[in-house]
């Protein structure tokens, strides 16, 4: 008997964190994320108000929503500035970094590598599992609560790329000189496949969200988290739920 050949659909679904971590019908059910049903009623593609190109939902190069929904998307204010450095080969339409820039436009900037600012003498922190990286909470306890320094970082930097691309970007001397931290482990529900990588490799928007959750816990110890950053996952959740319906995971080919 010849071995069964997996369909492209099955290979796509089963090779992603989206499939492996889909035990719950809605992994976002405990979060306070606004209703996105109005996005389903968007009749046609819109026009980007900046570049005049045809876009659906938002422009992934200008990071603005289309006019038809611009006043209905949630807008999130962040407690810290975030810079995202995106690899030039990262496909704009597939990257989740745009979600952050669209939903938190006052606090998020995206740069295309290698064109990004020099952070010399600036209070910044890089989220990346480099050789010298320490857990964020450990860094916070030493840098914030020690007598040597009470300065908080003014900007947090994320790298948006595949794992292989990110390692090459991290070799840039402008990034290697920055203090580097890692987050606690969280399971991703991202639908893009990263071959041979564990489920703890987060999409960029997931990493930003979980960083803000950790920061909030450290800045407000003992205070119950109110859900104030949950809407950063507004678009991420919308696309996730659409894909669940399209691929009908519960009845996917076995």
UniProtKB/TrEMBL annotation:
Main location: nucleus
Protein origin, superkingdom: Eukaryota
Root EC class: transferase
EC number annotated for this UniProt entry: 2.5.1.25
Nucleus found in the keyword field: yes
Known catalytic reactions: a uridine in tRNA + S-adenosyl-L-methionine = a 3-[(3S)-3-amino-3-carboxypropyl]uridine in tRNA + S-methyl-5'-thioadenosine + H(+)
Location(s) in or outside the cell: Nucleus
Keyword S-adenosyl-L-methionine on entry: yes
One GO location term (cellular component): nucleus
GO molecular function, one term: tRNA-uridine aminocarboxypropyltransferase activity
Domain DTW: 55-245
SMART domains tied to this protein: DTW
Keywords, ordered alphabetically: Nucleus, S-adenosyl-L-methionine, Transferase, tRNA processing
Transmembrane portions of the chain: none
Record family assignment: Belongs to the TDD superfamily. DTWD1 family.
Role played: Catalyzes the formation of 3-(3-amino-3-carboxypropyl)uridine (acp3U) at position 20 in the D-loop of several cytoplasmic tRNAs (acp3U(20)).
Protein name: tRNA-uridine aminocarboxypropyltransferase 1
Lineage: Eukaryota, Metazoa, Ecdysozoa, Arthropoda, Chelicerata
């Amino acid at each position: 008997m010849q071995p069964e050949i997996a369909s492209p659909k099955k290979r796509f679904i089963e090779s992603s964190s989206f499939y492996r971590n889909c035990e719950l019908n809605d992994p976002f059910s405990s979060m306070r994320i606004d209703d996105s049903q109005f996005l389903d009623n968007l009749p046609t593609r819109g026009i980007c108000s900046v570049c005049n190109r045809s876009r659906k939902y938002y422009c992934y190069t200008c990071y603005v929503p289309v006019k038809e929904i611009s006043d209905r998307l949630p807008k999130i204010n962040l407690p810290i500035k975030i810079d995202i450095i995106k690899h030039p080969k990262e496909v704009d339409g597939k990257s989740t970094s745009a979600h952050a820039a669209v939903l938190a436009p006052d606090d998020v900037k995206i740069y295309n590598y290698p064109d990004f600012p020099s952070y010399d003498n600036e209070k910044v922190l890089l989220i990346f599992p480099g050789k010298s990286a320490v857990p964020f909470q450990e860094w916070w306890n030493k840098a914030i609560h020690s007598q040597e320094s009470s300065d908080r970082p003014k900007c947090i930097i994320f790298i948006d790329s595949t794992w292989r691309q990110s390692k090459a970007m991290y070799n840039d001397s402008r990034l290697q000189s920055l203090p580097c931290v890692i987050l606690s482990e969280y399971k991703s529900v991202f639908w893009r496949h990263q071959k041979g990588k564990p489920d703890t490799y987060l999409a960029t928007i997931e990493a930003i969200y979980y960083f803000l959750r950790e920061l909030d816990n450290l800045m407000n110890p003992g205070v119950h988290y109110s859900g104030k950053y949950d809407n950063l996952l507004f678009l991420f959740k919308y696309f996730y739920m659409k894909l669940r319906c399209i691929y009908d995971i519960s009845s996917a080919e076995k």
